[in-house]
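=== Structure Prediction Worksheet ===
Name of assembly: unnamed complex
Input type: mixed (protein and possibly other molecules)
Chain count: two
Listed entries:
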Amino acid sequence: MKLDKFTVKQLAEIDACTRCGNCLDLCSAYSGSKDVSISPKKKMEKLKKLIDSEYGILSRILGSLGKRKISKKDIEAISNAAFACTMCSRCEVDCHIGIKLQDIWLKLREILIEDGTYPEVLNMVRERLNKSRNISFETNEGRANWAAQIENVPENKFVKGSAEVIYFVGCVSSFSPRVFKIPRAVVKILQAADVDFALLGDEEWCCGFPLLTSGFKKDFLEFAEHNIQKVNSTGAKYLITSCPSCYYMWEHLYSRLSPEIKMNFEVMHEVQYIYRLVKEKKLKLNPLDLKVTYHDPCDLGRNSKIFDEPRNLIKSIPGVQFIELENTREYAACCGGGGNVEAVDARLSEGIAKIRAEEIMNSGAALVATACQQCVRTIMQALKKESSKIKVMDISELVLTSIQNSI
Amino acid sequence: MSLNGIHLWVIFGVFVFLFLLGFFYRVSIWLRGESGESFGNEEKKKSRIKKFLSYTYAFFKVFFSRNFFRIMKSFILDGIIHVNLFKDSRLKWFIHIFMFWGLSAFTLISIFHMISVATAPGGIPSQDSSGFVRVFGTLENRFTAFVLDISKVSIIFGALIAVLRFFIFKNKMKSVELKDKSAGVIISIIATFGFFYEAAFFTARDVAIEKSAFAPVGFILSYIFSFIKINWWTAAVVFFNLYIIGLLLFVAFIPYGKYSHMVFGPFVVVYNKFISNKKIYKL
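=== Predicted Assembly ===
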């Protein structure tokens, strides 16, 4: 295992971890499985052991004689733990040392990929993405097919060479019929506000999030470069995304790629952009008599620190009674849909979603709004299993409902 | 039989060597890592010396900037008082603080004590000795006696609450490591030798109550010891050596093991708060 792939800071952080166990109860994967071995604390413990085995003082002084060999079993154990993580970053929030744990988990996955010790299913994810440029393995020409059912849709399905705003739809919203309502709602809102917008159509490639979080960083770079180049070529001023992971990629990682690759536009999540339209009075929101709660998507909330805009947007709908969940903002629990866990261990993902669903049911809300298509999917499924009648909507759908006043 | 001797300097030398070796060995492991300057491109291999200089420069550049007082405040609040732990769990904070502050004070004053003993002729400071030696060189000094005794009480008290917590919340304690348990046992044994040293010293030198009472545990033990008629000075020398050797070996081992966070934790807290978001200086 190439442990020297960790950064200097990360190796120092692994040494500085007190292993106090504070992160253990907060870990979504642990909560959903009750398996201590996949908790952040145990991962840090194993990592330190691996580092000592590889570079420890005994191995240095005594050479091969003193080297405590890392067994295949050790690496498999840490691989299982690493790929069971939803990358929700909840462990980071209450770390007393302030260790950037998510960066460590990402790097660990990258190292395990290079080592060849990772779940087989990730090869399929990689292959799909590299062949079809989307996570669904559909032909990428069908990227904008969801738009066909919108009334008075132009022949180009909003795909055009230039516009002020580029709407980056994301793979799940583009190909998963269960959440087609989300991009349709966003498009209708943009139309209602008379915004000059366009889609990239088949030139929109996956943002690379599944590749990066799986550890396939080299493959990810091609996707990032393609997307940036395509958006730049439209001359757009803004790029908006519905998917928080796409937003996280664009806003936080694409911008760090290289000084040569410049993004000539501002990146916004749909909630930020729609809230701005509301503030500028470009959208008229009609009253809705509803008790609404909000689930913070990990990549939008904790990882991108966007907490207020979605809440303000919901509260700006007249008649809506907003209820906070018990664990909210940076303390929000994960829905179980992140970090490719759904692909690697569907039962674990369900277990995590169940905990969040119970919290939502205890809130007394009639509708849970979120700002992520993956959260909509997992929460919807979990509430259905609990026979709950609570509705699940993306904020864009809620706003559109208010505009149309027809819930 | 004298408290001091050349062996104390040898022990101290070995301790300093092992501690620094451990410290720099850990740092050299970190420097094997990538500098993490570029997210997208494969980074160019840099020598460890270049990386060391780059990180040291970045650290000092931020440290001696207008953020100096904020860094010091963070170092004290996060690295020494552990406010984050306090906000999270008062019980854990009490355990941690009793043990951490206790061990820190015990180690620091023990080192001062050992150096002073080694310096003073016959191991006992005289009127000609320097102020430092007269303060730290003997348990007849109220301050030294008090800090050495109370710091050990603090360690043992913290360890006891930890043990009680373990038994009371057994079901909630998901992963207490063997290393935590063994470290607790070792430091308790060292503290016990320290108490025996105090008691044997007070008994052998018939230290007045006005002074010995400043080390309450040593004082009580010395009262018990006074009923046993043995050569308590020899016992004091033995217990002194046992506790000093045990303590210094324990502390020297810190950078090598799980407890390296005691040394590196405060630096990482400050680094992550003030420096990690800034670009590392490129050489």
